[in-house]
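FW: tagging you since you asked about this chain on Friday. Here's the raw sequence from the shared folder, copied in full. Didn't touch anything.
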Amino acid sequence: MKNLKKFPDIEDINLSEKISEKYISERDTLKIHECTKQCIETLSDVMKYGLVRIPESLPDMLEASAVRCHAMKMADAERSLREIGSRLSDCVERRASFSMEHLINEICNCTEILTGLLSDNITSEQLGSFRQAYISYGKKLTILPIGIRKVSGDYVGSVYYFLNIDQYAEQKFFSISDLRPTFYDNNMNYFQSNSIIWGMDVPLKSMMHSEMVLINAKVSGGKLSTSQETRLLTSYDAVIDCNEVRELIYTDFRQLAIEISEKNTENELDKLCFVQPEKCIESIFDKYSQQYIITLEDINKNRISVRAKYSAENKYFIELLEKIGNIMLENPRQNYVFLATAYIYDGELTLFPIEIYDFIRKKYSEPYELPEEYGNIEVTAGYAGKILEFFGEVYDKTAVIIRCGLQADIKNDHKLENIAFNYGLKGFSRMIADFMNCATSYRHGISGDCTDILIKMNHIYQYMKQGRKNLEIITSLSNMKGI
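HL: got it, structure written out here
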């Protein structure tokens, strides 16, 4: 496995309200550097104290750092710092929503953003944007409503999904998020929006059975703007059982896994897909993970799972999923098509369901030929699985440090770095040794640099992140067959 580059090449940008010059003044660059270093120092306090001894004031300190980032137009850093502060508050207040994995991921994500801003040349892309930049679609846009996803948590509302029926368009799927911050009214009911957009006479939810033609549509990464400039030109009765949908249906789970991994994106719409299983193998509720799981099998007997986590807000959806799973078991010849987001997690291809259709005609596809580079899955899957398991051990070690802090009795027995070396990951072995030696000696030193240790941890995390992307596709393909 190749060692990862520390940071990408970057360019300069002006910080003024209206960017008119490519390069900023030296004074503005120094201000960004000063703000960035303060933010990294505050962020490193999470590792310094650990969650068991974290000061109650630390979330407020992160909020203050986010405010400084806002003043310097460091939008991505501001959002990330606020996210970490929110997760730390969940930890301090012992909320069930707290996740150590999400916290570590966000800490490393924020560290990556901040260290990239220490360069003398900074791009507008690195600073980020406070608002989404919508661009004109350029012609009439015809969209077919295909599903609605209910959202609960910090925000509540609905996400509406549409299919672009232009078969030559690069962007196949669009969405609109109609969300509001969580709060309760006097009757303890969630706020529900009835937004009217695009000059329509009724709320969007009432139009989700109509194919719509829009003019002056504006999009950003697949998200449709609800601006007043966009207008509904005309609408028709929607027909989901159409060629435009059937052409996008996956009947071989291997093809879906490979194409999802090649996209290498975090955009939900790039992971959206139609999937047609051959039959349902199992439909159960896992009490340990609090997830409802449906195991599906395709025409070549490859197996994947559909998973939805239970919560009080989505109880109805889980009950509906259970009902459909049982019907599929009882009627194996009944054809179903899933609209879902697909992702590879822990070496398995998994679907998060949005809609399930029982009226789309069955698609009969030509047999899918596995690309040549995946021809020896049986041979490489074992090695890939061992590397991923080892990454899990390294991750667990960093989690212990985040939980207990650098003042804890951290011992480096050189086990992890030796395993990495024996697996042929020599560069990764050096990363682990450097990080563990610094973390171990911090407790006994008087001038240890906490920020340097944080940056070293991020290097390890970014290496494993890229490594997982390269290896999980192999393990997911092997797990489908149970190799």
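FW: The chain has a mean pLDDT of 85.
HL: agreed, and The two ends are 23 Å apart (CA to CA).
FW: great, closing this out.
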